[in-house]
Amino acid sequence: MQRVVVVTGVSGINGWHLAMYIYKNLPEWRVLGVSRRVPAIWPQDSRLKHVSIDLQNENDCLEKFNTAEFAEVEFVCCAAYTDTKDEARNCDVNTSLLRHTISSLDRVCKKLKHVTLVTGTKYYGVHLGRPIKVPSREDDPRHEGPNFYYPQEDFLQEYQPGKQWQYSVLRPHEIVGYFPMKAAMDSATTIGLYAALCKEMNLPFVFPGTPKSYETLLDFCSSDQLSAAFVFTSTASSPLVQNQAINVVNGDILRWADLWPKVATYFNLEPVAPSDSRKMTLTDQFGNPESEQNWDRIIQKYGLKEIKLSEVATWQYVDWSLSREYHCITDMTKAREAGFLQYRNTEKDFLAVFDEMKRNKIIP
Fold first, then answer.
1. Is 176:221 a contact under the CB 8 Å cutoff?
2. What is the distance between the alpha carbons of residues 215 and 253, in angstroms, rounded to a whole number?
3. Which of 19, 57, 77, 153 is most buried as measured by Cβ atoms within 10 A of its Cβ?
């Protein structure tokens, strides 16, 4: 008998990867993928169904989740979110989105066993532009100011008591994984586009950060690692994952000073370290009409997919991410003690993203 899982936000990088991971690796599971629009890549298969629901609309949730298909659901992964560009409003919008999802499913899913909310290390303040406590642990105090992860977790803590199901909150750091659409917090795809442009236009492959950020310590979470963590927490009996927050990263610690040369070698480029006298940003260099025209010529030359740079590249995000001059290290002790022992090689997973970009004709 198939086990049924709901994944919301399948038009985003985390939800889409989880749906594909389950589809490829768990033949006894069936995915009901929820988002307003169908993802660019969504195989036609009875084990993989897309349902268009506006999670911000409570009536739409109540109506469309109230079906026989959703009544069979055992597991839920909430990976949907909306960015309004105002964090106080993000708190209201995203908590309502989560509330609509969980309260609607809770009414109809009598077999429901586990709910997972995907958040991230923004919980620890990595986005604030100042040093954070490292390693970051699940019980670290919250930072001052609004953060939409906080009311979302508060809602689950307040709503779950007395229910037959448990919940987990997964907190990954920066995601590494191929995604066929623009992903707000994915650096690997944009770095691959940058390298391809440098290769074709004979530009120096300069690290778009600072000498200090080049040497800082950081970790990543590959998409398969996050997906495996979802399956583990959904099915594990350990009290360490039931109604708990869990950090999820690959398990290795890197510096851009080590990773950048490996990326350069993959593209047969010479890596150029940053310097205080030569500060450049990808946004200034490539976020313009001239670069779109150059990219269009590359598309025509190599027969690539007809897609604009602006539709896949996140120049501003990568400029910010690669310029962070403080360590970002996430403690995985809690997950390890619970029994989640999987590791990923971040360097290999970065290169695997570039392989996927080539296979899907995104880059030459």
1. yes
2. 12
3. 77
